[in-house]
Design goal:
Layout: H1 14-45, H2 50-74, H3 84-114, H4 122-153
Amino acid sequence: MKKSWVTMFLPNDEYKERQLLYFIAEAFVLFIGFLGVAVLLNRFLGIFSTEFSYILLGVIAILSLYVWIRYILSGMEYANVVVKSEYKIELKKTIVSTSKFAVLFAGVGIVLKVTKIVEYSWMDLIGISTCAYVLLLVFQLSSLRLSLKKNREL
């Protein structure tokens, strides 16, 4: 944990540090949940202005992306990948799981469109699904490659 700017706020005792990190993580999850409830309340009850909803969604996205990107760049996701054969196995698993995500993502989009909950064109659905698939695949492959590099160094 010594490679983070957060360490200046943490105690030197390892047990206290770990407990404080748990508390911070719990607060983060509760905060994201609170923001999600606020967005839903605004959607159905119109409590806040439309701009405020975008701000809430932006905060949720930024916080979630920060944690996800830091996790990917840390190279700790694939701890068992040390040799090229393990890399190839995990590569296949990653491609399959990312493809499953893309199908699920597109399926949810189709359901939302068919039920007229959200109005968008079929091209929008295809474009968003493809972008989501490509971005997730790039991030997952980057994480796999960084994990291989980090594990070889260890």
